[in-house]
Task: structure prediction
Amino acid sequence: MKHIKVQRTFTRGIAEAEAFVYEKTELKASQNLLRDEFEIQDNLKFFEDAVNAVSEDLNELAEESAIFAGHLSIANDIALKEAVISKIKDEKQNAELALENTIQEFSAMMSAIDDAYMQERATDIEDVGARFMAALQGEEFGGLDHIQKEVIIIAEDLTPSDTSSMNFDYVKGFITEKGGVTSHVSIIARSLGLPALVGASTILENVQSGDTILFDAESGDIYINPEAQIRTQLLEKAEAEAVLKEQIAARVDLPVITEDGKKLKVYANVGSAEEIQHAMEYKINGVGLFRTEFLFMENKDFPSEEEQFEAYKSAVEALDNEIIIRTLDIGGDKELPYYEFEAEENPFLGWRAVRMCLEEIDVFKTQLRALLRAAVYGPIKIMIPMIISVEEVDQVNKIIDLCKAELRAEGVEYKADVPVGIMIETPAAVMIADKLAKVVDFFSIGTNDLTQYVLAVDRGNKRIEHLYDSFHPAVLRAINQVIKAANAEGIEVGMCGEFASDQNITEVLLGFGLDEYSMAASETPIIKEKIRNLNFVKAQELAEKVLASGTIKEVYDLLGME
Result:
């Protein structure tokens, strides 16, 4: 028996099955340079045919998947195509070599961006590049559609194309060497409720196809050809968890109320109307974070007011419940293919989110007008990211008032009293939360950014990732300060970062006075059940003890964590 431990986990569940080690055949480009104009023209035609073939395949996949809609956008990206064509024409690289070099350049550019989500998108570019290469070489694309027995997929990483034809009736879980919370395998595992471990750096050197794999996604323990005693212990735990899961599923429609009568909201984080449809399977109470940047990043130009109106209208109609829509959170570190951003030394602290919107007012107004119009069709709230001052809130409100005046003058139907709130994700917003609470309708705490800003720890930096911990007393005190400020002014306060789905902190957040938890939809049933079994008064007592802690270890000890 071999035992491997993964330190950071993102899903729950126990899985046992035969290992299927997936080693992709990497298609390499010919290194031959072109000799004359005839060969140049032939290779331009080869590339054009590959683009058409790949686009046709992705068109079909995009109808069912927002991920592949993004891939289609990459395949049709003008900058990417022009870069390949330029290498063929000017540098006499054959189509395969021009493609390979271009994909490497674009992937490296995305990997260098100081944002975990955008770094993971480098994988999407490489995935599309592999499709192009297969088309150029006349090879079949894909390799996981033939699985016909229960397996656990072991791989270096998995792309959307790897999983698109996979029969999930046979897949019991995933373990990959690469990836993080925003990687495709993490997203798909959470959406399907499958156990998964990512970042298991030594898994491929320790596992062979045919080995028996038993792993606990919550604890991070992986057992290869497990001993009988370990197997018995984990399978008993799995059986107990399965019974509990059924019980929780049977209660998923019940109100989220503590034992002593405090009512809470448990919402989902989504990025499209399609994701809402899936999230509704978990009987979510609402959406606490609707990310709009995907609509911008998967387009060929800034989406029009009508395009955005239809997207937001579809989302709120699909949900038929409260939805908090975050305005454009892009810029600096998250680039758009059709807009040139100035290079910044530290883009994560640069011209992004509301800072960009307050300068690109036409772009911002287009989105706000679409949101005000869509709010006629359901309870939409508007949420502004990266706020650091009351002055910014005042500027935003003036622009919203201007949009209302324009719509009114044009005779366009809109909702006049749409609640406007802000994300609290900077130390500045924490420090003046009492002032901000007087000028907004609600708060939502973005713990992913807040943690890294409070601790001055880049969450994408592998060397210091061990320092990134939302259980740090400084982060917990910041969260408490924000919640107290919101409670004092009588406005709702939610949390939409990954921390909201961590059962270890649920009771403490309740004790702080949090009103709404928002997370991946698949996590909502267990958090609902957790809250129903808590007592608000006792939670307040625990919260006070946690706030008195001076070290992460003290917090861990109080919460019974390892």
Remarks:
- The domain at 254-559 is CATH 3.20.20.60 (TIM Barrel).
